[in-house]
C-alpha cells in the first residue's frame, strides 16, 4: 500500500514539476527568437535611454510585419495549428525583448482572445514598446508611393500567408483604387488591386495580376459572401456546364498606409480569364433590378445615364455585340406570350436551373437580375446561350434591405425563411408558360442536390469552418473593434436558423412541383 501511495505521490510531484517547468520555460526561453524578460529586467535595460518612437523595421523570417500607427500595433501571422510559435523576429538594429506574459503558454487561446503582448525594441540610445497581436489569418499590407491623375494609388503590396501557399511572403509593386457602386460611399472601402510584373497566385487561388479586396462592410458576420460563393461553386461543379463555377474568395486582414482596415475578402475577378471566353463570346454585367429601356445598351450613352447593363468583354463594344442581350430582354422582360421554346433555346438550361435553385436557397433578393454576370456563350450555329454567374452576395441567407432607420444597410429578417421570392427573371417567365416541365426540372435537380451538396449538415460544415476561422484567428474581434456596429442585432445563430428553416421550406415548395 505504501508503495502505491509513493508511486501516486511521485506522479503528482512530476506533473507539478512539468507544469511549473512549462511556465518557467515560457518566462525564460525565447518567443520567435526574442528573449522574454520580466518588467524589472526590461526597465533596467531601458533605464537612461530615450523613450522615443522607432519606426518598426521588423521582419519575421525575412517577411515584413504589418503595423498600425494609431494603435501602435504589430500584427504577426502564425499557423493556427500546433502549440509553438514559428519564425524568428528581427529588427534592423538593436535588440528585441518580449515582456513576460503567461498567455504565451497557449498560442491558440491568445489568438482567439486577441491577447496583446508587449514587445520592446532597445538600441544604444532609445527604447520603445509595441503592442503585438498574433493572427491566424493572412495579412495584406498596402503602402502608397504616389497617386496618378486618375486617382489610382501606386506603391507596394506585401502578403504574409503561411497557410495556402508554399510561399509564406510575397511582395509586388502595384496600383489600387476604390471600387463599387453603393459601396463607394462606405467608410470601409473596397479596392481593385492590380499587380505589376509577374502574375501571382495569392492564397492558393489562380495566378493573376488583377484582384478585388471586398470590404464586407455590409456583410454582417462577415460570412454571407464567402459562404455563398462556396455553395455556388459546389453546385456549379456538379453540373456539366464548363466554366460557370465563378470565383473564389479568401479572408485576409488588411493594412493600408500603416492603418489597420479589418477583415476583407480577397477574391478573383469574373472576367475573360475566369470563364475561359473565346473571341466570339460576350460578357455582360447587370447593375440594376429594373429592365433596360430602348437605348440602355449602347456605347454612346454618357456615364451619368448609368445603363442597366455593362459590357465587360470584349472591350471594343459595338451595336452588334449588344444583340444577344437585346434578344434575352425581349424574351424575358417584355411579357410577350409564346416565347417558351425560344426562351429555352437562348438559355443554357442546366445552368439556369442551378442558378434559380441557388438563388432561392440563399434568398438572393439582390441577385434576381442585378449582380449577375451574363455570359453569352457562342454556339457553332452562330447563336448564343446565356450562362449566369453570381456576384456581390451580401444580401443573402436571410439578410435583406429594411426600412428600419435604426439599421445601417441590411439586416436579418426571419420572414425570408418562408418566402417564395428569389426566382431569376428568365426562369420565372419559363415557369409561368409551362409549369409542368419547368417545375419537374427544378424538382428533379433539387432532389439531386439534396443528396450531398444542399444538405443542412454540408452547409453547416461550411459555415462552421468560416466562423471558426474568423474567431479562432482573432480577426473577427479586431474587425469589430475597428468597425463597431451602430446597432448590434446580428447573431451568428441567425444563419443556422435560416439554413434549417429554408431547406425545410424548399423541400415542400419544390415537392409540390412534381
Task: Provide an overview of this structure.
Helix content is 31%, strand content 25%. It is built from 13 helices and 25 strands. It has helices at residues 2-28, 39-46, 107-112, 224-237, 272-275, 323-332, 340-346, 349-362, 425-433, 435-452, 456-472, 475-482, 493-511; strands at 30-31, 34-37, 58-60, 63-64, 66-68, 73-77, 89-91, 95-99, 117-122, 127-135, 139-147, 153-160, 169-179, 190-195, 200-201, 207-208, 210-214, 249-256, 260-267, 282-286, 309-313, 372-378, 384-390, 399-401, 410-412. Helix 4 packs antiparallel against helix 8 and helix 4 packs across helix 11. Mean pLDDT is 89; it is low at 1-28 and 298-305.
Describe the secondary-structure layout:
Blueprint: H1 2-28, E1 30-31, E2 34-37, H2 39-46, E3 58-60, E4 63-64, E5 66-68, E6 73-77, E7 89-91, E8 95-99, H3 107-112, E9 117-122, E10 127-135, E11 139-147, E12 153-160, E13 169-179, E14 190-195, E15 200-201, E16 207-208, E17 210-214, H4 224-237, E18 249-256, E19 260-267, H5 272-275, E20 282-286, E21 309-313, H6 323-332, H7 340-346, H8 349-362, E22 372-378, E23 384-390, E24 399-401, E25 410-412, H9 425-433, H10 435-452, H11 456-472, H12 475-482, H13 493-511
Parallel strand pairs: 2-8, 6-10, 11-18
Antiparallel strand pairs: 1-2, 3-4, 3-7, 5-6, 8-9, 9-10, 11-12, 12-13, 13-14, 14-17, 15-16, 17-19, 18-19, 20-21, 20-22, 22-23, 24-25
Helix pairs in contact: 4-8, 4-11, 8-10, 9-10, 11-13
Amino acid at each position: 500500500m505504501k508503495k502505491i501511495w509513493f508511486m501516486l505521490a511521485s506522479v503528482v510531484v512530476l506533473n507539478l514539476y512539468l507544469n511549473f517547468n512549462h511556465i518557467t520555460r515560457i518566462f525564460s526561453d525565447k518567443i520567435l527568437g526574442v528573449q522574454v524578460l520580466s518588467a524589472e529586467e526590461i526597465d533596467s535595460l531601458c533605464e537612461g535611454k530615450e523613450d522615443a518612437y522607432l519606426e518598426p523595421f521588423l521582419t519575421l523570417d525575412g517577411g515584413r510585419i504589418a503595423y498600425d500607427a494609431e494603435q501602435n500595433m504589430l500584427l504577426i501571422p502564425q499557423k493556427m495549428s500546433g502549440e509553438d510559435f514559428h519564425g524568428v523576429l528581427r529588427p534592423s538594429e538593436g535588440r528585441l525583448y518580449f515582456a513576460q506574459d503567461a498567455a504565451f503558454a497557449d498560442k491558440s487561446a491568445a489568438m482567439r482572445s486577441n491577447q496583446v503582448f508587449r514587445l520592446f525594441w532597445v538600441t544604444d540610445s532609445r527604447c520603445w514598446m509595441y503592442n503585438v497581436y498574433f493572427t491566424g489569418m493572412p495579412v495584406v499590407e498596402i503602402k502608397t508611393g504616389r497617386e496618378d491623375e486618375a486617382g489610382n494609388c501606386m506603391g507596394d503590396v506585401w502578403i504574409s500567408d503561411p497557410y495556402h501557399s508554399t510561399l509564406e511572403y510575397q511582395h509586388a509593386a502595384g496600383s489600387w483604387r476604390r471600387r463599387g457602386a453603393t459601396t463607394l460611399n462606405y467608410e470601409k472601402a473596397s479596392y481593385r488591386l492590380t499587380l505589376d510584373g509577374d502574375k501571382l497566385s495569392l492564397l492558393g487561388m489562380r495566378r493573376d495580376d488583377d484582384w478585388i479586396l471586398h470590404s464586407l462592410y455590409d456583410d454582417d458576420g462577415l460570412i454571407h459572401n464567402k459562404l455563398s460563393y462556396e455553395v455556388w461553386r459546389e453546385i456549379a461543379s456538379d453540373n456539366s456546364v464548363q466554366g460557370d463555377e465563378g470565383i473564389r474568395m479568401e479572408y485576409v486582414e488588411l493594412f493600408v498606409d500603416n492603418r489597420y482596415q479589418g477583415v476583407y475578402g480577397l477574391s478573383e475577378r469574373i472576367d475573360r480569364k475566369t470563364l475561359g471566353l473565346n473571341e466570339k463570346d460576350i460578357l455582360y454585367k447587370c447593375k440594376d433590378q429594373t429592365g433596360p429601356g430602348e437605348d440602355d445598351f449602347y456605347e454612346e450613352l454618357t456615364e451619368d445615364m448609368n445603363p442597366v447593363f455593362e459590357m465587360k468583354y470584349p472591350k471594343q463594344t459595338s451595336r452588334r455585340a449588344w444583340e444577344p442581350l437585346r434578344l434575352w430582354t425581349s424574351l424575358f422582360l417584355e411579357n410577350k406570350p409564346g416565347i417558351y421554346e425560344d426562351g429555352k433555346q437562348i438559355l443554357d438550361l442546366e445552368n439556369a436551373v442551378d442558378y434559380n435553385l441557388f438563388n432561392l436557397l440563399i434568398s438572393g433578393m439582390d441577385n434576381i437580375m442585378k449582380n449577375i454576370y451574363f455570359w453569352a456563350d457562342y454556339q457553332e450555329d452562330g447563336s448564343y446561350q446565356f450562362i449566369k454567374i453570381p456576384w456581390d452576395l451580401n444580401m443573402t441567407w436571410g439578410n435583406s434591405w429594411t426600412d428600419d432607420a435604426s439599421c445601417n444597410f441590411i439586416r436579418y429578417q426571419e420572414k425570408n425563411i418562408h418566402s417564395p421570392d428569389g426566382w431569376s427573371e428568365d426562369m420565372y417567365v419559363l415557369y409561368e408558360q409551362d409549369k409542368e416541365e419547368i417545375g419537374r426540372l427544378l424538382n428533379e435537380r433539387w432532389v439531386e442536390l439534396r443528396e450531398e451538396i444542399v444538405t443542412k449538415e454540408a452547409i453547416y460544415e461550411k459555415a462552421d469552418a468560416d466562423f471558426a476561422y474568423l474567431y479562432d484567428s482573432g480577426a473577427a474581434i479586431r474587425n469589430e473593434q475597428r468597425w463597431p456596429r451602430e446597432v448590434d442585432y446580428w447573431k451568428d445563430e441567425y444563419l443556422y436558423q435560416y439554413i434549417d428553416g429554408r431547406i425545410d421550406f424548399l423541400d415542400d415548395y419544390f415537392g409540390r412541383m412534381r
